[in-house]
C-alpha cells in the first residue's frame, strides 16, 4: 500500500515582493503569486495528480489562497481541508517586517546570515528551523502521516520552513542539508510513501 503526499510552498506574497521577513504576519498573495499557484496546479493536473482525500494548510492566507487555487484547478474543492497554525511559517521574531537589506545594516550581514542559514540559532524572539520542526513534526506525525500510511493521497500547502521540517524528516537530511535546500514558490513536490513510512519515489513538478 503506497500513499501520496504532495507538498507545495505558497506563491509569492506581498511581503516576499518587498523583500521583508514575513513569518507569522499575514500578507496576501501578489498577482504573480496567484499565477505561480495556478501554474503548480496545472502541473499537478498534467501529472495526473487530480484526486486527493484531504488537504492541510496553515492559518495564514498566503498558503490558504494557494491551496484554494490548486483545489479549484484540479476540481477538488469539496475535499476536507484542515487549517492549523502548527503549519505556519517560521516565526522570525524581531526580524519580522524588516527589509532583509535593512536587517543586515542593523544587525550585521554575518549575524543575519547565521539567523537565516543556521539550523539551530534563532533570531531574537523567534524560531530557528530546529524549533520550527519541533512545532511542525508532532502535528505531521499525529495528523498527516497516519493518513498517508493508510494509502491515502494528501495535499499540504504551506511555507518554506514548515515544509523543510517535513522534508528533513522524509528524506533523512542533516540540519545543514535542509537549510541549504531551496523550495520554489508554487511548485508541488510529490512523494510516494509505503506503509512503513519509507519514501519510494519523489517528483518535483516544475
TrEMBL record:
Q: Which PROSITE patterns match?
A: PG_MUTASE
Q: Where is the site described as Transition state stabilizer found in this chain?
A: 159
What is the top EC class of this enzyme, as a single word?
A: isomerase
- What phylogenetic lineage does the species belong to? Eukaryota, Fungi, Dikarya, Basidiomycota, Ustilaginomycotina
The residues that the entry says bind substrate are: 9-16, 22-23, 62, 89-92, 100, 116-117, 160-161
Instruction: Check the record and name the Pfam families matching this protein.
Output: His_Phos_1
What is its pathway? Carbohydrate degradation; glycolysis; pyruvate from D-glyceraldehyde 3-phosphate: step 3/5
According to UniProt, the reaction catalysed is: (2R)-2-phosphoglycerate = (2R)-3-phosphoglycerate
Query: EC number(s) in its UniProt entry?
Result: 5.4.2.11
Q: InterPro entries this protein is in?
A: His_Pase_superF_clade-1, His_PPase_superfam, PG/BPGM_mutase_AS, Phosphogly_mut1
The record ties this protein, via SMART domains, to: PGAM (SM00855)
Give the protein's recorded name. Phosphoglycerate mutase
Single Gene Ontology MF annotation: phosphoglycerate mutase activity
Family per similarity comment: Belongs to the phosphoglycerate mutase family. BPG-dependent PGAM subfamily.
A GO biological-process term: glycolytic process
Where are the catalytic residues?
Answer: 10, 89
Q: What keywords are assigned to this protein?
A: Glycolysis, Isomerase
